[in-house]
């Protein structure tokens, strides 16, 4: 697994790791049943504390994208979404849209940016 981190970013490292894996799943680069690299290996490869990688993996588990089975490791498990995940998505989208509107983005601009983002994910598949 190849993770690109931006040391200049204000986004915490654990969040960057999480986001890179989410994008890889969305693009089909990681599929149902694929094993993620062990926490210690990722930490060593990137040169960070294993607790930081564990925090990213735990967030992926809470998102319902990965399941962790002790020594068996972490396995990608995207699939049937739950009502809780749908509610979480609604809440996150509401916050993002409200912030964007407060910053002056029009509904047309938001639609265009969402379409562009979706296209980027599809093109990279």
UniProtKB/TrEMBL annotation:
Q: HTH gntR-type domain spans which residues?
A: 11-79
Highest taxon listed in the record's lineage: Bacteria
Query: Which InterPro entries does the protein's record reference?
Result: Tscrpt_reg_HTH_GntR (IPR000524), WH-like_DNA-bd_sf (IPR036388), WH_DNA-bd_sf (IPR036390)
The protein's matches in Gene3D superfamilies, at most eight in alphabetical order, are given as:
Winged helix-like DNA-binding domain superfamily/Winged helix DNA-binding domain
Keywords carried by this UniProt record: DNA-binding, Transcription, Transcription regulation
- Protein name, UniProt field: GntR family transcriptional regulator
């Amino acid at each position: 697994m190849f993770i690109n981190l931006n040391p200049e970013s204000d986004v915490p490292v654990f969040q960057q790791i999480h986001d890179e894996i989410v994008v890889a799943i969305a693009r089909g680069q990681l599929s149902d049943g694929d094993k993620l690299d062990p926490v210690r290996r990722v930490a060593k490869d990137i040169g960070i504390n294993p607790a930081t990688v564990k925090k990213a993996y735990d967030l992926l588990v809470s998102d319902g994208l990965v399941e962790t089975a002790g020594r068996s490791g972490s396995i990608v498990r995207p699939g049937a979404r739950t009502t809780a995940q749908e509610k979480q998505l609604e809440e996150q989208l509401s916050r993002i849209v409200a912030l964007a509107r407060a910053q002056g983005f029009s509904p047309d601009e938001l639609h265009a940016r969402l379409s562009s983002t979706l296209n980027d994910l599809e093109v990279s598949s």
